[in-house]
Design a protein that fits this description.
Elements lengths: L2 H7 L24 E6 L14 H9 L17 E3 L4 H22 L7 H29 L4 E6 L6 H11 L2 E6 L19 H5 L5 E9 L4 H9 L3 E5 H9 L4 H10 L4 E7 L21 H13 L3 E8 L9 H20 L3
Parallel strand pairs: 1-2, 1-3, 3-8, 4-5, 4-7, 5-6, 7-8
Helix pairs in contact: 2-11, 3-4, 4-5, 9-10, 10-11
Length: 349
């Protein structure tokens, strides 16, 4: 059955069918404008694990999402599909997460990182992270070269580095808009070059990344603060400053305008779910008090799209399903649907 026939026969008001794809949509990956690449990886997480389960949990929760979008008319017709979950990625993540836990625990208990056994673990994990970066880059380019809109679904926040490398190859210069509680500007955190806490430090090494605009940052070390204050490519909107401005009578609308004024034409959205208020993501690996409501972020993205700027791709990371409930995944799935639609709109779909 052709896509137009599927659209004609599909009831967007009905119950999401579990035998259909993402959000209960009946389209194949080939038929969809937007393809989501799941990356079930959490090797270097530094607090609580479980984010490798995020992609499957978001997929499972997506069938409960209503398909009406108040901004993008008939958005569901464009199609959103999730690529197959890679068993190889998940198996490597599980194996090397255990090794990383041992390494981190040994260091926390006073071990020397130059110990031969620990050095071997660190070297092996480094090689596996390089492997993942290459895997992500190739997978993203596979769909980018088909002119698909690509979103990456983590996994921990280290996962999108390969995608950023793919975007640099495909689009040239772009700016990263980071929604996050953490600065992620640590140099080789806990001895891991490709740590989730180092993603933006590594992103700044990509020549085509012309700017990093951070929004909602509220947990960082002095080393990161020094980098934020000194690096010519970094502009940070701290959560505290945003809230204090609002307490003094400023509006979110005016603050958003100032954020948008920092953004050039091509934007990559990197969204760590812990950028939200932790009541919306209580099970994420490193929750921090403070943060945004969902509609605040959607308001920002809507204004970016209306400004004529283009969101060339995006990621959503650090979603961790809770034991016995799917609240985090439920929030993530609903947010993801709206993000997909707004990104498609920014690309003229």
């Amino acid at each position: 059955m052709k896509k137009q026939d599927k659209i004609k026969n599909f009831d967007p008001n009905g119950i999401g069918q579990l035998n259909d794809g993402m959000f209960g949509l009946p389209f194949s990956v080939e038929e969809c404008e937007t393809v989501l690449i799941p990356v079930p990886w959490e090797v270097t997480v530094s607090y609580s694990g479980g984010t490798a389960d995020g992609p499957q949990a978001i997929l499972d929760a997506s069938y409960q999402v209503d398909l009406y979008d108040p901004i993008v008319k008939d958005a569901w017709k464009l199609g959103i599909a999730m690529d197959e979950l890679s068993e190889e990625v998940r198996q490597k993540s599980d194996k090397w997460r255990l090794a990383a836990e041992r390494y981190i625990n040994e260091l926390a208990n006073g071990a020397d990182e130059n110990d031969a056994e620990l050095k071997k673990i660190s070297t092996n994990i480094q090689a596996e992270c390089v492997w993942l970066n290459n895997w992500v880059k190739e997978r993203c380019l596979h769909y980018l070269n088909q002119n698909k809109i690509v979103g990456l679904i983590g996994g921990d926040h280290s996962t999108p580095l390969g995608m950023m490398q793919a975007l640099a190859e495909k689009f040239g210069n772009f700016t990263i808009l980071q929604i996050d509680a953490h600065a992620d500007l640590r140099n080789a955190y806990e001895g891991f070059e490709f740590s989730h806490a180092s993603i933006m430090f590594n992103a700044l090494k990509i020549n085509q990344v012309e700017k990093l605009v951070q929004v909602g940052i509220r947990d960082y070390c002095e080393e990161e603060l020094n980098l934020m204050n000194s690096h010519p490519k970094v502009k940070t909107f701290f959560d505290r400053d945003i809230k204090y401005a609002q307490y003094n009578g400023d509006s979110w609308d005016r603050i958003v305008n100032r954020i948008i004024n920092e953004l050039p034409q091509n934007i990559y959205l990197s969204f760590d779910i812990d950028g939200l208020d932790p009541k919306l993501c209580p099970n994420t690996g490193t929750p921090v008090a403070g943060g945004f409501e969902v509609e605040q972020i959607l308001f920002l993205l809507e204004k970016i799209v209306k400004s004529g700027r283009k969101i060339i791709a995006f990621d959503l990371n650090e979603v961790t399903p809770g034991i016995g409930n799917d609240w985090d995944a439920n929030v993530a799935a609903r947010l993801l649907y709206r993000i997909c639609n707004l990104v498609a709109m920014s690309n003229g779909k």
